[in-house]
Amino acid sequence: MMEEELTSIQKLIDTAIEFCVNYSFQVIGAIIILILGVVASNWVARILLSLFEKKKLDITLSKFLAGAAKILVLVFVILIALGKFGITIAPFIAALGALAFGASFALQGPLSNYGAGLTIILTRPFVVGNTITVAGVSGVVEEVKLACTILTNEDGVKITIPNKHIVGEILHNSRENKIVESVIGISYESDPEKAVEQVRQILGKFEEVQQTPRPQVGIQEFADSSINIGYRYWVPTAKYFQVSYKVNSAVYKALQEAGINIPFPQRDVHIISKPGQT
Fold first, then answer.
1. Which residues span the domain enclosing 167?
2. N or C terminus: which one in the chain shows less Cβ crowding within 10 Å?
C-alpha cells in the first residue's frame, strides 16, 4: 500500500517536472507579454488623451477613442500570449460569436443603450457642460458614458438617463445657460414704457444675466386687471432659481419705487334692479 502511494506521488512529481521543463518558458513569456501589454495600453491611452487635449477635441469623444485604443492593444497582446501556448483563437472566436448571438436577445435593453451611447459620442448632439432637456428632465451634462448620460441640476441631484431614451427623442440643448421667462402685471393707469425701462435696467445690473443674447422685455398681453410686462433672459443653469428669485425681487422693488402700481385681480359688479324691486 505504501509503495503504491509512493509511486503515485513520484508520478505527480515527474508530471510537474515535465510540465515545468516543457512549458515554463512559455508561461513566463506569456506573463511578461501580458505585463508589457498592460503597460503599453495605458501608455497609448495617456498619449492619445494628451494629444486630443492639445487639439481641443471634445472630452467625451477623447475618452472614448483612448479607451477603444487601449482595448485594441490589450486584445492584440492577449492573442500573442495565447500563441505562446500554441492555442489557436478560431474556436474561441466561434464560441464568442455564438454566445453573443444568444445573449443579444436577452440583452436587447443594455445593448440598445450602448448603441445609442456610441451614436451620441460620434454625432455629439451635446457635450459635457451643456444644458439639455430630454425625457422630461433637465440639467447640466456631467458625463457621457456608453450606457447612460449623467446630468446634475442646481440642487446637486445626479440624474442618470439611459442613452436609448435620448437618441430619437426631442432634445433641447441650451449650451451652458438656461432661459428664464417671467411676467409682472401693472395697472392700466401706469406707464408701460416706464415699467419696461425699469425692468431692463434691473436686468443690466446682475452679472449673472447674460447680455448675449440680450434680455427681452416688453408688453406681453393685456389682461383683465393688468398690463402684463414679460421679460426673458439667460442665466447659468447652475444658478437658475437663485438668480431668477433675486431678479424678481429687484423688479418688484424698482416698480414700487418708480410709483408704478402692481394691481391685484378685481372685477366691477353692477347690480340692476327690476321695476317694482327695492
1. 125-173
2. C
